[in-house]
Amino acid sequence: MRTEESFNRNIIYLHIAVMLFGLAGVAAQFVEVPAVLVALGRVVCSSLLLLIIAAARKDSLRLNSGKDYCMIILTGAVMAIHWTTFFQSIQVSTVAIGTITFSTFPLFLTFIEPIVFHEKLRSQSVLSAVLLLIGVIITIPEFSMANHTTIGIIWGMVSSLSYAVLTLANRYFSPRYAARTVCLYEQGSAAVVLLPALFLVETTWRPLDLAGIAFVGFICTAFAHSLYVSAQKSVRAQTAGIISGMETVYGIFYALIFLGEVPSVRELAGGVVILGVAMYSSMKAK
């Protein structure tokens, strides 16, 4: 009975964590500073909280080799690109566009992962990639750089590509180090990479901007990720993967409630294809 109660509690925790992940894009819409500063604030807040947690738990932060230090710093730079382009996609278009295009990362993984890890390219994965591409094409209203939705999709695809690279890096690091340690290094490195933007990008800060960024960094990133990792201890990876696929759905729902953003028919149709393929790929992989 206790095991069942623990399982049910962790399922609830997973949903709460994913709901918070989905809330990040919506919360960022209330912030009027440029996307690069939103990304900077997010990784600064989250890495500070993770550092406090690591110090309180006396986690070992030592890596095994100089190669791993270099790789994880480069991974942090990729994370900086990922978050900046994700928020840029949302700012120039909608939360739906940003989150839907972000979900296309399996498209890039299909072709990059076999090269990096010397694995066979599966025909089923290629088919899934083609379907993901079709979903993106359905979502594009017109092939014009004057259309904000099209621009948002391009930024979202860059965010998706960078997340695919992050996923491959985490595949390398996850068997070697604790998840919290990896996240701390990655987000701390991303903060250092983005720090010059604080002095190079001119903007006017409002109290709401600072509060929104702090909420995204502390609650939607550091707290949500810690909750997500701890809840996975007694839940199958496949179940966690399916729940993770709900992030986009939660994000679109929040945008509808808090921002009044109603997805177009194209966005819904393309989103159904992309999310369906992404969730199926996640289930098959795990």
Notable features of this structure?
286 residues; mainly alpha; 13 helices; 79% helix; globular
Distance from first to last alpha carbon: 27 Å
> How would you sum up the global shape?
globular
Please provide the ordered H/E string of secondary-structure elements: HHHHHHHHHHHHH
Detail the poorly predicted runs: none
- Rg, Å, rounded: 19 Å
The portion of residues assigned to helices is: over 70%
**Largest sheet, if any?**
none
The count of DSSP E runs of length 2 or more, i.e. the number of strands, is 0
Strand content: under 5%
Put simply, the count of helices is 13
Estimated structural class? mainly alpha
What's the rounded overall pLDDT mean? 82
Report on this model:
With 286 residues, the chain is an all-alpha fold. Helices cover 79% and strands 0% of the residues. It contains 13 helices and no strands. The chain starts with a helix and ends with a helix.
Question: Any chance you could write out the topology, listing elements then pairs?
Answer:
Blueprint (H helix, E strand, L loop, with lengths): L1 H27 L6 H23 L8 H27 L2 H8 L2 H12 L6 H17 L8 H26 L5 H16 L2 H4 L6 H25 L5 H8 L2 H13 L5 H21 L1
Helix pairs in contact: 1-10, 1-12, 2-3, 2-8, 2-10, 3-4, 3-7, 3-8, 4-7, 4-12, 4-13, 5-6, 5-7, 6-13, 11-13
Summary?
The chain has 286 residues and is mainly α. The protein has helices at residues 2-28, 35-57, 66-92, 95-102, 105-116, 123-139, 148-173, 179-194, 197-200, 207-231, 237-244, 247-259, 265-285.
